[in-house]
Amino acid sequence: MRKENSTNTINEQFLFQVCELNSAIAIIGGRWKAQIVYSISQGNNRFHLLKKELPNISEQVLGRQLKELEIHAIIIKKEIPDTVPLGVEYVLTNKGLDLVSILESLCNWGKLYADGKEISACLA
What we know:
This is HxlR family transcriptional regulator. The longest helix has 20 residues, at 94-113. Helices cover 60% and strands 10% of the residues. The chain contains seven helices and two strands; from the N terminus they run αααααββαα. With 124 residues, it is mainly alpha-helical. A hairpin with a 6-residue loop joins strand 1 and strand 2.
């Protein structure tokens, strides 16, 4: 946790005020969030299905990323009735559904320009 008056925090707050794009990137930023959202859109809507689809993510990180997506109202967690133990599934909200087409566009952009490499490597 950063201090409220640290340079990083002040700069982050400034960038969020200057352009909503910075806020959007902060919400979907992180190594796994985009892939999690896309996987849920493809029907992998239970924890074990997401873990199977993304085998390199730890359960702790997957749980944390799902919680952050839930906090930002990208997904909601719904209880599955009549399951023992109580089952849950993750469902994209309208906000999350809108994000899927944006992620697909970014994916296409990456296919055109990133070629599976980090962008910084492409600029060198």
